[in-house]
Amino acid sequence: MSDFRKGNIVKPYERLDQEQIDRIHEASMAILEEPGIWCYNKQAADLFVKNGATSVLEDKGGSPCWRVRLPRELIESAIAKAPSKVVMGARDPNNRLELDAEVPRVYFGSGSETNIWLDTEMTDFVAVDDPGDRRKMPKYTEKRGSAALLARAAHLCEQLEHLDFFVRPVNIQDEGINEGNHDVNKFFASLNNITKHVQAGLTTLDALDDVVKMAEIIAGGPEALRENPVLSFIACIFKSPLQLVDDTAEKVFAIVEQGLPLVISSSPQGGSSAPIQEAGIVAQINAEILTGVALTQLIKPGAPVLYGSVPVRARLDDLHDLYGCPEFNQYNIDCVQMARSYKLPCYSSSGVGNAKVPGMQATFEKLFSHLYMAASGAQYIHYAFGLLDRTNTFCPLQAVLDNEQVGLAKHCMRAPLISASESDEAVEIIRKVMTTNHKLFTRHTRKPCRAGLVSEPYHFESKTGEDQVLERALAHMADLEARPVKHLSGEMVERIFKEIPGLLPELKQTN
Amino acid sequence: MSEELLEKLADNVVQGRVEQEDEGFDDGYEGQPAVTELVEEALGKGIDPNDILIKGLTASMTTVGEKFEKGEYLIPDMLAAAEAVGAGMDILTPHLLKAGVKSKGKFIIATVAGDLHDIGKNIVAIMLKGAGYEVIDLGVDVPTARIVESVKENEAPFLGLSALLTTTMRNMEEVITQLKAEGLRDKIKICIGGAPTSQEFSDKIAADGHCSDAFAALDWVKAHAV
User: What confidence tens digit (pLDDT) does each residue in A350-365 have?
Assistant: First the structure.
């Protein structure tokens, strides 16, 4: 099989020392023993009990809930069975990702399921007091997410060279979409328009078989799919704090049995559904994720699983999520370190903006976490393209701007090139240049330039120094979107439409 | 045979290669003879130095300029090519003089007294040399008297003054005043450059022009050539 995507192997920036890692682990183990978890799924509670946990049915008149207390032996022995390497497949095998918990190779991708698609057009505005003063300003239009827009997002993301994987960024809300056909349509709209890895949550368990069948057709059969899993799933199994959700747990059982990669994610909010203090939220999210990971290994030892940490902080004026703040980076880097200590590949996040539209605020908020999280060495960083208004809006123009930012962040994190031969060559060049009158090293930049070692100026700058970033990025986006779409073959699309019920006819597109 | 050699020389200018060990813009050039070796070879084969100059060295700078305009080349590629022409010129100049071929003209260049900055000045010097001018580079922190002396001694038609500091740029005015006092001002065209300078400042001190970069300097010298 072909190569994997290159990614960036970084020297991880670590906040925690070993003593602090051990302390968080101990705190997580203590939480799981007392108070334990509130488990709303009987099958999961039974499986935990079978493996040494204690369980008490709490009858409060609502959904049945088992208070499960998990001994550390159960958690520690189960997570030790999880693989440290997980391959995320792709339609184009060169786009596969190799996630190895012991190698800090960083990949960036999109996410997550927003309801709003934000379109941008540049419009001429005239100053009220000076009709001669005309300026181009962005005008934004909100649209409800649809299958066609998801397909458009997939095609755009195929063209963004720094985007390594595709977590569906738009919720499809077409008239013809219902709970029963939501999954097949979102996966098909994605897979028919991008050759990179595709990932999403599963809306309904009933759709799993059809989604897997579709993936098997695309990958070339059941075995080929397990070897090259072109899609994978996200399961946010915990509602923080510490409540294991019934239907998500059911999905976890079924997905694990299918042998496809799964992210066990948790997203507590420091200040509301978790303590705001680093020591508290990280211990809690770690306890939640470890329980989910342990569950996958009790279902099927060796099941491919990612440690999915998305801790956020509450803003204290309205209790919404607050991104682009120091605590976001601190919580998330801690989680990356915890995952590394368990030898589990880490699904992390960066690049979300609180801002509702592209601009200075969004740029600040995104760069703040892009750089830090790239430095963390998390293997699989989602949320990194196009998200605005926290995670409520996907803006394709913002995804194009983020692509530039992520590219430069990746460049920042490149390993230093200071081998013996590179040092010798540098000394030689310095000696040579010092014999000249001009003492300029400029001509010697050519070789590293050709080798792709020298970064380029910001792609969307204007020569005049005027801020034309949005206008230029929009023009670049139009070029990217005009490129041919990499659809599945006609034969494959025909077969999928024949065998998979519920697909929207307008998604039937081939080259 | 000689045409082939001159084409090879022109190609090496475009590639920006001074010596055999230099890499080119494209792959596969390292270890092949470059501009200095090829000029020596051409002279050894008795090729007319003027042909070497025009067909081998300066004409190909037009190609380099076009590549830069198209965005194919960046500044380092332009400078490498200009430096290669300059290196060729160093070998060729005595032969050109012997053959009675005149240079495009002498251009004295200096960073004025009190200022040690010379990146911009050096880039201008390389580009001018690459364009066929005889560049007399007086270096940095050059006292006014030495600049005036050099103008007198070389009878140069062009003088370029550079400064990076707001505190030293006023020394440019002193040079011009001194040239006037010596009766030399009318015999020389003076351009100024450097971050704090401007056309407004040039007008104020009665220089003949302000050049914002090396390309502007090339345009300026062409426009003021006699």
Answer: 999 899 999 999 999 9
d(CA B18, nearest CA chain A) in Å: 10
Note whether A387 and A112 are within 8 A (CB): yes
Alpha-carbon distance values, A114 to A143, A177, A251, A390, B113 (Å) = 11, 16, 21, 10, 64
Mutation test of the interface with chain B: which of A434, A443, A454, A456, choosing the one with the most B Cβ atoms within 10 A? Answer: A443
Asked if B123 and A438 come within 8 Å (Cβ–Cβ), the reply is yes
Residue of B nearest to A441 (CA): B76
What structural domains does chain A harbor? 18-79 (no CATH), 85-412 (3.20.20.480), 423-450 (no CATH)
Inter-chain residue contact B79 with A437, CB threshold 8 Å: no
Check if CATH label 3.40.250.10 holds for domain B106-223.
no
Size of interface A-B (CB pairs under 8 A): 38
Label the pairing between strands A8-9 and A105-108.
Answer: antiparallel
From CA A377, how far away is CA A385, in angstroms rounded?
Answer: 18
Please give, rounded to a whole number of angstroms, the shortest distance from the CA of B95 to a CA of chain A. 22
* Cβ–Cβ gap B125/A438 under 8 Å: yes
Chain-chain contact of B123 with A439 (C-beta, under 8 angstroms)? no
Answer whether A437 touches B (CB < 8 Å).
Answer: yes
* Fold observed for domain B2-98: 1.10.1240
- Torsional sign, CA B6, B12, B17, B19: negative
Nearest CA in chain A to B26: A450
Residue A307, pLDDT above cutoff 60? yes
From the list A313, A227, A298, A201, the residue with the least C-alpha distance to A267 is A313
Smallest CA–CA separation between A444 and chain B, in Å? 8
Cβ(A383)–Cβ(A394) below 8 Å: no
Domain ranges of chain B: 2-98, 106-223
pTM of the model: 0.89
Rounded-to-integer distance, Cα A132 and Cα A428, Å:
58
ipTM value: 0.82
Please judge whether A440 and B16 are an interchain contact, meaning their C-beta atoms are less than 8 angstroms apart.
Answer: no
State which residue of chain A sits closest to B22, comparing Cα positions: A444
Residue A474 CB contacts under 8 Å (≥ 6 apart), including other chains: A120, A121, A122, A397, A400
Nearest CB among B77, B79, B122 relative to A439 is that of B122
Would the CB atoms of B122 and A437 count as touching at under 8 Å?
yes
Same fold? B2-98, B106-223: no
Residue by residue, DSSP assigns chain B as -HHHHHHHHHHHHHHT--STT---SSTT-TTS--HHHHHHHHHHTT--HHHIIIIIIITHHHHHHHHHHTTSS-HHHHHHHHHHHHHHHHHHHHHHHHTTPPPS-EEEEEEBTT----HHHHHHHHHHHHTT-EEEE--SSB-HHHHHHHHHHHT-SEEEEE---TTTTHHHHHHHHHHHHTT-GGG-EEEEESTT--HHHHHHTT-SEE-SSHHHHHHHHHHT--
Q: What is the pLDDT of residues A37-89, one digit of tens each?
A: 999 999 999 999 999 999 999 977 788 999 999 999 999 999 999 999 999 99
Residue whose entry in the numeric block shows the structure tokens 């329980």? A291
Interface test with chain A among B13, B22, B36, B136, by most A beta carbons within 10 Å: B22
